[in-house]
Design brief:
Length: 495
Amino acid sequence: MSKFVMIIFGASGDLTKRKLMPALYSLYKDNRLPEEFSILGIGRTDYADDTYRDYILNELEHFVTPAEVGMKEFCTHLHYLSIDPAKEEGYEMLGKRLQEITGEKAPDNLLFYLATPPSLYGVIPLHLKKAGLNRKHTRIIVEKPFGYDLKSAQELNKIYASVFEEHQIYRIDHFLGKETAQNVLAFRFANGIFEPLWNRNYIDYVEITAVENLGIEQRGGFYETAGALRDMVQNHLIQLVALTAMEPPAVFNADNFRNEVVKVYESLTPLNEVDLNEHIVRGQYTASGNKKGYREEKGVAPDSRTETYIAMKLGISNWRWSGVPFYIRTGKQMPTKVTEIVVHFRETPHQMFHCASGNCPRANKLILRLQPNEGIVLKIGMKVPGAGFEVRQVTMDFSYAQLGGVPSGDAYARLIDDCIQGDPTLFTRSDAVEASWKFFDPVLRYWKDNPDAPLYGYPAGTWGPLESEAMMHEHGADWTNPCKNLTNTDQYCEL
């Protein structure tokens, strides 16, 4: 195989210094990069190779703590080319530079990474094709969002299919690179005790939460065009729904796994008028204490209707899940940062134990937490020692750290490594992108056609609009709201 070169478009940007370079450095440190590798940064900022190496070394010392040996050696593999990725004329220079770096006439072991604004996602592949850089063993990684709606996603898919084969395209979603996201599959399919219970006969409802305690952090311009649905729901959250709901693949390989994900998306119950009005709650954070409201953020319109919070009720129309609601939510400026899946099992058919001392026997609950303190919690009823039969809910708590901990910043490293190895399992396929957009497109259309559709304010630092609680009460349910510090405090806490 020819020498390996990773080409990063957007090499002077935020994603590159915060995520990609630390991930590549950790692969280098663990000897997981090809022996003869080079990294070529592409951007409009003017750097020579040496100044770019110094810049990345300085940034690595910030983002990899503590600073480790080998960083300087890693940076000797970096190169830089200053061109405008939007303009065709720079790609001839790119071809020549790749020849220089590899010493080969037609280098082919190339990995392009698009760490650019989404506006360039449809432009760069066409320029690569014209320059003849879409060779047989070339791969390309594209960041989300892959399209802004169904139509734009289909157009993007068309462009990529005209330049690359499907097996060369890697649509990355760092959520699936997290060990604990993959652990959902292991938990479901490696444990005979839970597998028989994982269906409508034993599960009452499922809730999936992915919230942050930060605002939009200087990304007002981007967020105004995206909103929570495009930014989080159409990709991250729906993938967590797929991991929770999918059927076991007959053989665990990339194609079979991705087939099952698509089947879940295709089984989502289409949203009707009632759902659009009553089973989707969108909100926007307002000022509270020393925290600014969304409309006061830089780059945000003073009358913005962009949602920073969304909660939805989904149904899956198949044999396994018919009648089981899936409640999903995401939001900015929440009390804490947490991503978790909570599976609520049905009550026992007959309740023979009665409430005592304010404690009532409650349905079992399983919590799969993906971040920040990764682990699994099972809530079961036990008899309180002493006279009578008081039953209280107790917690069986497993922390992921017991398996040796979770390396920080590992999601990107794992996914880039998979791509280098040619393993597409954890990347999104074109039919999955379209199936997901097919489901969510009516929501975007509804908001567009009904500009007065409710948008509820919620004070920054709270759990979102009260209307999302009301949506849960329809099912006789409540959201699981962990405490701020995710440990037991003097206030009642779920974990």
